[in-house]
Amino acid sequence: MTTTPTPYDDAKAQLKRAQEILGFSDDDYELLATPRREITVAVPVKRDDGTKTVLRGYRIQHNWSRGPGKGGVRYSERVDMEEVRALAMLMTWKAALLNLPYGGAKGGIAFNPAEYSKAEIERITRRYVHELFPVIGPDIDIPAPDMGTDAQTMAWFMDTYSQAVGYTQPGIVTGKPVSLGGSLGRAEATSLGVYFTTRAALGHLGIEENDATVAVQGFGKVGRGAARFMDKAGMKVVAISDVFGAIYNADGIDTDALGEHVDETGKVVDFAGAEAMDPEELLLLDVDAVVPAAIEAVITKDNAADVKARVVVEGANGPTTGSGDAILNERGVMVVPDILANSGGVLVSYYEWVQSRDNFFWDLERVQKSQEAAMLAVWDEVVEFSKEHSVNLREAAVSMAVERVLDAHKMRGLFP
Ligand code: NAD
């Protein structure tokens, strides 16, 4: 019987490929593939109606050879151990690729936040932090927002942790509200980075911003901002979707007007400035770039042969499965891998952590200029590595990151 590979299987396959490219031993592969610490916690919650439910929470610290664990917290029904394991491993590579002094971690709670009140989500968050208290900290593991969580979640996180230690500790999380020591530019950092890498990839193929057409899947924290930055830069964002449906306008969607519509109705569908389209078709549109910025495993062996774009920019984590990736690669579709495309979030999280520790805050221009310079430098390095080793951009990015983590392992040695 063949089983569908899990996200963790796909993540390990990427590491295996880096092993082939870099030529390190099986022992080293095992060391890099195995998460350092995996925690499962019960998160009991009192519902508003007085009943009680027990949710499952996770935190996985994949690797901390280069520094404390860093990675988001996801609230979604789809969260499970395998997904969190894969995402934690991706975080290790992402931080190393960006040369940040972090290892990788990820967490989540398996529930659908849309079915819970704000007060219930606050209680869930605070209990989860309480359960994780011994294994998180500004020098141990620093959470951040991800799918289903936001700056408010991080404020509760920071407050609960601070109550426990007895003083305000803003360095425990990133993605906090600016009023609590969050960084200017953090909220839109992932989206801005997706825009920078899309622009770089299109430029690499000789496509000017003003001539480019783009389709964006997802209109949440990543997709919404990415679509807006692209629209403002002159790209034509012809299609956008969310979990409820998709919309299309061949002349380009006005993303500000769409944002207002979504703020009012909660959905992209029924927006007056576009027509409805089949969401399944969005990633298959004949555009220059498609940007999956919602969930995992949306480009698979079943639809990769029908992708017509010249570039796939992975705004989401793991939107392309291993088998989907192989088909895109064979067909010569450029894929800007997640660990590069959406790394603006962890990069500006790092700037936020530094500011929180220094109690000295940067202006927006400094944040965004630093982000642009850092991401474009990494883009150049990845392109260079890919040419030098005749590998694709994902293989290059993962190999560069893995090499840095392995080097840290070797320099530190094995204890005892
Ligand atoms: P979010 O919860 O803010 O938004 C998710 C969006 O995806 C929503 O618009 C939702 O309606 C849409 N969506 C859900 N299921 C869909 C489907 N089947 N088809 C189309 N749209 C669908 O989450 P986010 O923070 O924007 O995260 C999106 C992805 O980006 C995740 O993979 C996350 O891990 C990754 N990511 C996020 C950040 C960050 O800073 N928020 C950083 C790096 C990577």
What's this entry about, in short?
With 416 residues, the chain is an alpha/beta fold.
Describe this structure in words.
The protein is an alpha/beta fold. The chain has two domains: 7-15 and 25-179, Leucine Dehydrogenase, chain A, domain 1 (Rossmann fold), CATH 3.40.50.10860; 189-336, Rossmann fold (3-Layer(aba) Sandwich). It is 44% helix and 17% strand. It contains 13 helices and twelve strands. The chain has helices at 7-22, 26-33, 81-97, 118-132, 151-165, 189-204, 221-233, 255-265, 322-330, 338-341, 344-358, 364-389, 393-412, and strands spanning 37-46, 52-63, 69-75, 103-109, 141-145, 213-217, 236-242, 245-248, 275-277, 289-292, 311-313, 334-336. A seven-stranded mixed sheet has the order 9-8-7-6-10-11-12, with helices on both faces. Helix 6 crosses helix 12. The radius of gyration is 21 Å and the shape is globular. The N and C termini lie far apart (42 Å). The mean pLDDT is 97. The structure holds nicotinamide-adenine-dinucleotide. Residues 145-148, 190, 217-223, 241-243, 279, 293-295, 315-317, 342, 345 line the site of nicotinamide-adenine-dinucleotide (NAD).
